[in-house]
Design goal:
The protein is an all-alpha fold. The protein is built from eight helices and no strands.
Length: 158
């Protein structure tokens, strides 16, 4: 017999049940969302947290318990995973636009010491600019360029 659940799954509304069923059968949705929907539906049908965990390939029911608690608080939006760990992103849209603007600017040989950008030279230019980003890393610059579909290497001549 299982222990008493601290935060049992609340009753699903017909719309929630319909959406979770649709999502649990989806072939195109991200696997994490499909697993969460399948686990929540299993619990709604009376399965234990352990059985639901094994159904979606998890070994511990603590994960399922966290999904249930989050679903009780947030509803269907809890099925979409949030930030998975690591430090939060420090640079918002305005800072990312600043990085892209610096990349779009042609480097001046005297001021920047180069005719083409590299990640470290972009970093140096952004850190030294009056309206720049004093602690920006080369990884942040690379990630911003990559997300925008750009590459610092395309301007290289060799």
């Amino acid at each position: 017999m299982s222990r008493h659940r601290k935060d049992p799954l609340r009753p699903l509304t017909p719309d929630e049940h319909k959406e979770l069923t649709r999502l649990s059968r989806s072939q195109t949705a991200p696997a994490a969302q499909v697993d969460r929907a399948r686990a929540l539906l299993a619990i709604a049908d009376g399965a234990s947290y352990t059985a639901a965990a094994h159904l979606v390939g998890r070994w511990h029911n603590e994960t399922i318990s966290a999904w249930v608690s989050r679903f009780n608080r947030e509803g269907l939006s809890a099925v979409r995973p949030h930030h998975g760990g690591g430090p939060r992103i420090r640079y918002g849209a305005q800072d990312q636009h600043r990085i892209l603007a610096e990349w779009a600017r042609a480097p001046e040989r005297e001021q920047d010491g180069t005719a083409t950008w590299s990640l470290s030279l972009l970093q140096k230019a952004l850190r030294q600019a009056p309206d720049g980003l004093p602690r920006v890393s080369t990884f942040t610059i690379w990630r911003t360029l990559h997300e925008a579909g750009l590459s610092w290497q395309k301007s290289r001549t060799w």
